[in-house]
């Protein structure tokens, strides 16, 4: 170690960026903050910021989420713990982004995290964010590269990757239940799939599939009329993490 010279290597910074998704008004929505400082001042961006020298990546992600929005999340099983949690939230590392020109200030490598939770509250701005809001993913991403809302840095790419991760993972895992309250109906779970995938599903076929998939759902013993009509059976997430058979997306 005595022969190691750190100055022989170019310095760079590390940031965390957060793709925070929830379902609001039957639409998949992403959390955005409006940047209050350069670069990209006034642009909408994903929440995030620089990693401090004394903290881990997931710890930085949790801190940035709380500082900029007032929201909290916990890690998924097998991931690095991030401290106090909101029940039902889910956090996992998404991908790393390191294009040399992605940040005009200096060389910055970003580690992105995906955060999913049900019925998240209206966010509040903080840190270097002047405001924060939930925005429907369909409006942000559009139908092609020239559509959608221009976001700061490469956050449009990061958001698209996070949305696709969520869409693909609810096919073969129980991740869709992370968008639901602790107890939920099959109809509420179906509306999560419809919102995330952007499709309309047949209620009877969906009910048959999810209740017939081993370990996916467990009856809680209760019922609810919160959706109107006849009482509907309540379920909780089962112990399965991988769905067999998977819930495949309808072909567009």
Gist of the model:
By secondary structure, the chain is of the alpha+beta class. The protein has helices at 57-69, 137-141, 155-172, 186-197, 203-212, and strands spanning 13-24, 27-35, 44-45, 48-50, 90-97, 108-116, 129-136, 217-224, 232-237.
Report on the structure:
- The chain has 252 residues and is of the alpha+beta class.
- Helices cover 23% and strands 26% of the residues.
- It is built from 5 helices and 9 strands; from the N terminus they run ββββαβββααααββ.
- The protein has helices at 57-69, 137-141, 155-172, 186-197, 203-212; strands at residues 13-24, 27-35, 44-45, 48-50, 90-97, 108-116, 129-136, 217-224, 232-237.
- Strands 1, 2, 3, 4, 5, 6 and 7 form a 7-stranded mixed β-sheet that branches. A two-stranded antiparallel sheet has the order 8-9.
- Strand 8 (217-224) and strand 9 (232-237) form a beta hairpin.
- It is elongated and about 65 Å long.
- The model is unreliable at 76-88 (pLDDT under 50).
- Keywords: Hydrolase.
- It holds the Pfam family NUDIX.
- Belongs to the Nudix hydrolase family.
- InterPro entries: Nudix_hydrolase (IPR020476), NUDIX_hydrolase-like_dom_sf (IPR015797), NUDIX_hydrolase_CS (IPR020084), NUDIX_hydrolase_dom (IPR000086), WH-like_DNA-bd_sf (IPR036388), WH_DNA-bd_sf (IPR036390), WHD_NrtR (IPR054105).
Shape annotation: elongated
Question: Mean of the pLDDT scores?
Answer: 87
Question: What's the level 1 CATH class of the largest domain?
Answer: Alpha Beta
Fraction of residues in helix = 10-25%
What is the subunit arrangement here?
single chain
In N-to-C order, the SSE pattern is EEEEHEEEHHHHEE
Q: Count up the helices.
A: 5
Radius of gyration: 20 Å
Q: What summary fits the major beta sheet?
A: 7 strands, mixed
Number of strands: 9
Q: What name does CATH use for the topology of the largest domain?
A: Nucleoside Triphosphate Pyrophosphohydrolase
What's the CATH H-level homologous superfamily of the largest domain?
Nucleoside Triphosphate Pyrophosphohydrolase
Distance between the termini: 57 Å
Q: Which structural category do the helix and sheet elements fall into?
A: alpha+beta
Q: What are the low-pLDDT stretches, counting only 5+ consecutive residues below 50?
A: 76-88
Q: Supply the CATH architecture of the largest domain.
A: Alpha-Beta Complex
* Number of structurally distinct domains: 2
Q: What amount of the residues lies in strands? A: 25-35%
